[in-house]
Amino acid sequence: MGILPTSNFPLLVVLNPHSGKKQGREVWDSIVQPALNKAEKPFKLIESNAQGHAQSYFFDNIKPILTDLIQSLSAVNEPVDNASAIIRPSSVTLQIMVLGGDGTVHEIVNGILRGVEGTGYVSDEFRPKVEFSIIPTGTGNAISTSLGVTSVQDALDRFLVGNATPLRLMSVSTRAESGWKVHVYTVVVNSYGLHCATVYDSEEFRHLGNERFLHAAMKNVENLKQYEGQLVFYGPVQSYDRSTGSLTPVSSADSNGPTISLPGPFTYLLITKQASLEPGFTPTPFAKTSDEWMDVLAVQNVGKAEIMEMFGSTSTGKHVEQKTIEYFKTKTVELETPTQGRLCVDGEFLTIEGGPEGRVRFEVISDENIQIFGVYA
């Protein structure tokens, strides 16, 4: 896969000029566009001019985009009985380059999936692939950082080489009459407690770039709260064992019943697919972008000293040795809160109701008709 199968079809470049420190346009003009021109790679530039724009664009346009791509790769056989037989591919690869942050990737993923949802457009007979080149011009750049991308040029080089790895999704589902209904798909992190409050409050410090999270975190640590809730794991679970320094199976169960539970309250809770959320901040060091697990970092009912100790070790991942930190790998986990609460899902916010009816389920996507995304690594 990679650049060759779609070399004559334009690369879709999504430019978010407002992400991070607003350097996206300068990076595009001075580095990325010249590199694409030199590589003779055709492109179509899409400027994301407001929050939600990228999601709306792909929701409205993904089917015609894929149709055009299919037609560009379709073969025509010799005429048979005065008619030409058109052979359409069973899969195509759509390349999307993002000059922005993880939030822009989140929007595109959800726009694409909502755009084809329920239409039968993606099926076992036709399954497209969507491969992202993420040029890190956002605030956190969690996906790029977790994949070890060190610079804009590094990201470009990886795209031109064309080696893609799966970009695994998580679903966030809420209760519905028929069971569970997917509310949103996430690619980076879902959080509750201190991390969610930090992201929420960081908006007032957005002008500081990456530093906004530090300022917001210190504000919330100073007024540290505990967040009531219960976390319930289902199916196979691995737990970090400090005595061996490794992840070991807690249960290999694959039934509908719960495997283990954490009673809370939670000071800090992350459910994520990425090892690093920004450079120098690696809260879930065993997480992998492409594996079929979610990593859960849970800190229950601790004080300021323990939280500050954790923050002081997250650059190296050594914080997992703290006795107050619990670390798991799982495929399905549910969160229930006794009263109304707030979740952070890839930087957006979801209000959840208290009690069993407000329970939220997080799952790693295994459905091949949804798990169609990759990222150049």
Automatic annotation (TrEMBL):
Domain DAGKc: 6-176
Pfam families: DAGK_cat, YegS_C
InterPro entries, per the entry: ATP-NAD_kinase_N, Diacylglycerol_kinase_cat_dom, Lipid_Phosphate_FormReg, NAD/diacylglycerol_kinase_sf, YegS/DAGK_C
Organism domain of life: Eukaryota
Gene Ontology molecular function terms on file: ATP binding; lipid kinase activity
Alphabetical keyword list: ATP-binding, Kinase, Nucleotide-binding, Transferase
Cellular component, GO annotation: cytoplasm; membrane
UniProt KW tRNA processing keyword: no
Listed GO biological process terms: sphingosine biosynthetic process
Protein's name in the database: DAGKc domain-containing protein
Organism (species): Entomortierella chlamydospora
Organism lineage: Eukaryota, Fungi, Fungi incertae sedis, Mucoromycota, Mortierellomycotina
